Amino acid sequence: MAEQSGLPQARRSVLGLAAGGLLAFALSACQLVPAPRPEPPPLPEEETPPPAPQPEPARPGLPADAARNRVAVLVPLSGANAAVGQSIANAANLALLDTGGERIRITVYDTAKDGAAAAAGQARTEGNGLFLGPLLAEDVRAVATVARPAGIPVVAFSNDESVAGDGVYLMGFTPGQSVERVVAYARGAGLSRFGALTPNGVYGRRAAQAMVAATRSARLGGMQSFDRDPAAIRAAAGRLAGQGPFDAVLVADSGRTAALAAPALRAASPEVRLLGTELWATEGSLGATPALRGAWYASVSDTMFAQLRTRYRARYGTNPYRLASLGYDAVLLTVRIAKDWRFGRPFPERALGDPDGFTGIDGAFRFDPGGVAERSLEVREVTAAGTAILSPAPRGF
Fold first, then answer.
1. Domain 175-299 is found in CATH 3.40.50.2300
2. Beta pairing class for 69-75 and 358-360
3. How far apart are CA 305 and CA 326, in angstroms?
4. Rounded CA separation 386/134 (Å)
5. H helix count then E strand count, the chain
6. Cα dist. 373→18, 62, 105, 214, 226 in Å?
7. 150, burial (CB in 10 Å: exposed 0-12, middle 13-18, buried 19+)
């Protein structure tokens, strides 16, 4: 059962398990399994939408549960990131519905209303033995200060590797892995002289570090950073173009940024191949921009996410954010491990370190010793029709 918890508002049920009985086995093959096994089959279409969940009556605390372990989903449900947080929460609830999830009970807590630490404190007080989320790096730090003394593992949705470790695991898509994958593919295709444009900030610094490492035995001819405004992007591209020519240039930001940089880069290097990161996977109309056609980028596979989008839209009447898959896969992970989670005992954290990894909506992944999700990525090319897969993601490790 899933609930929504406010601070300090009364809770309401987010989904009813009566409907779960109808779909308990619908996605059993999509539950997280050791990565070497075949990729799960497509998510089935829902013939008749289940009845809308009914709110629980107001009560001073969560209802007692003598058979299921409690799991908290910590996401922003108010403020600037409310839409993303709600999308992740909805996908988490959908995963519970799709799998049955008889051994766990999910409650959603708002990390934005009174702060992430307050949400985590309430979740701890109400008996949750595992935290899924939060989304933002600063919120992960706040939640960790509450979770660690209580021995509660945190499976967060951030991509900031600096907050991982010591009981904190990150499911977010990190730029370093994407950069490494696309550069390796480019080198295999015979490209040898590289350049890079990276945004100022944590993400850009991570991407720059990864680019230096990925081109260690190639040639990194130049790198420029920029602020995220059109004039600054064009200026940085012009500076980098002066360091050319290049075979390929990584633009570690959105496809829109790459389109702004392309004219200056191609003026100096007419055959330059633009390279992108996993951020490009969130943009559905890359191919509509002629300057981006032929560009390569690396990301998790979208095949299963397309199936999830259909299921999500049928239930909630809108499309999910791309990050919603993190909530779905986090619950699949929990459902799998919950088979060995004895009621009333701490969550079996050691299972998160399974070296064979897991498979979910976003393909194969496993947590490295530092708690960061190592992911199996594919390489795509931007085409006029959208994108085409150049190199499929490996199915396991």
1. yes
2. unpaired
3. 11
4. 32
5. 10, 17
6. 34, 32, 24, 19, 28
7. middle
Q: What are phi and psi of 391, to 5 degrees?
A: -140, 110
Under the banding of pLDDT at 50, 70 and 90, the label for residue 100 is confident
The pLDDT, as a whole number, for residue 361 is: 96
| Whole-Å CA distances, 42 to 45, 129, 314, 336, 345 | 9, 31, 15, 19, 34
Residue 37 confidence (pLDDT): 38
- Name the residue ranges covered by the structural domains of the chain: 2-172+303-375, 175-299
CA–CA gap between residue 77 and residue 105 (Å, rounded): 19
Verify cis geometry, omega within 30 degrees of 0, for the bond prior to 55. Answer: no
Rg, C-alpha atoms of the chain: 22
The CATH number of the structural domain formed by 2-172+303-375 is: 3.40.50.2300
Four-residue CA torsion sign, 13, 138, 299, 362:
negative
Closest CA to 8 of 126, 155, 146: 126
Alpha carbons 152 and 131: distance in angstroms, whole number: 7
> What would the mean pLDDT of 150-163 be, rounded to a whole number?
96
Amino acid at 129: G
Residue 118, C-beta contacts closer than 8 angstroms, at least 6 positions apart = 7
DSSP run (H or E) holding 139: helix 137-150
